Model the fold of this input.
Amino acid sequence: MAPIISRFAPAPTGFLHLGHVANALYVWGITRARGGRVLLRIEDHDRLRSRPEYEAALLEDLAWLGFVSDGPPVRQSERGDIYIQALDGLRRKGLVYACSCSRAEILAGAEARGAEVRGADELRYRGTCRDRGLADAPGLGLRVRFDPSVERFTDLRHGPQEQRPSEQCGDLLVRDRDGNWTYQFVATVDDYVQGVTLVIRGDDLLSSTGRQLQLARLLGRTEPPEFFHHALIMKSPDQKLSKSDGDTGVRDLRAQGLSAADVIARAASLANVPSHFAYYPKP
Done:
């Protein structure tokens, strides 16, 4: 198999936890097995929640664990010109429009139609502002038109997949009403610009793969990346780990006296990382 380029992409909105460690085991393990390179991307596009102290901590924890990237970290907060250029390309194709709708308004509209959406992670945007011709202005979001399509791909763990983004999420939000770039947009642009050929991430993002493939194609990407979605470490049958779970935080485990090898072994065990996938850094 050809060498690959993958990425480890934490968001500095909290401290590293065992779920991140499990993902790192997969990323470095699969990539190194195929003679590839691992890029480190700091996904700090959320200006409201990202903190420099969290970034410093995650870089320190990664070094302590022994995960070494191929090259210095890239920060999304420093790549605004790249995102504007990508957005301008979509504008020239007539695909971008301003949107005044809030999540609360979209939720209220869905409930009025009798949809079962309370507590749902995702709402389908039905194109309320698509033809309103709103001028881009502060306080308005930006969306990309998603015409109906069927996105087919083969996940390296789950096998053949088929998704319909226009039915799942509707027109994609790429910049929110606070002026923040959205995860779906910047991750897709960065994977394209950085030449990422294999995206290794948790099962919670499997459902968003189709929209990223459709967006990448609209941006001009002709060779999409491969995808591998792995199982998550769950706090309960219905709840994955979060950065607020102190009992699984790398910093907390270090303070308890666990070694890097202990932390890695615990993450591998909880996530059922197969030994032939996992990468175990040398102490």
